[in-house]
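Table S2 (continued). Query chain:
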Amino acid sequence: MNETVKIDASTWVDEYADMLFNYAIIRVNDHELAKDLVQDTFISGLKSLANFEGKSTVKTWLFSILKRKIIDHWRKQESRKTKAFSFFNSERMSKGGFVEGHQPQGKLPEIEAQMEKNELREALFYCIGALPSKWKGIVVDKLVEEKESEDVCNDHDITASNLWVIIHRAKVQLRDCLENKWLNL
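Corresponding output:
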């Protein structure tokens, strides 16, 4: 017998928005994108509310929806591999390679370098998102925000030797992830 589970969706934003946002921001490192993903999660949850069987908590169910949204986002990003701007040499640009008035501004090598930097940053945060959950905050605090080791240890209640073991292991895992996801080696 399949009982209907009664859920009050009007409380979702108050109860789960912050948790979902914090989860998303670590994985996408973009505040607006994280907000959009959480909003899409709530919308998908509302649309499929009738299918919710109550085999898990609402929180777990919403997190699983958000995880799928984040995975879909990264899959779309990977499928958008583009040619470098240098592919459009100055001869092609002058012959209509770009819509008039919309040509890239600045030197092509500078534009390429900025694009690669942005792609690397996205790949790095994707790889940080793949780290074990206990490591993520430590890695972000130490390597991204460049906090002092003592502060990181105090914030995460770990010893200095534990910090360096985690950082070393995380760097190895990040290197492997970047080689596979960004460098395509």
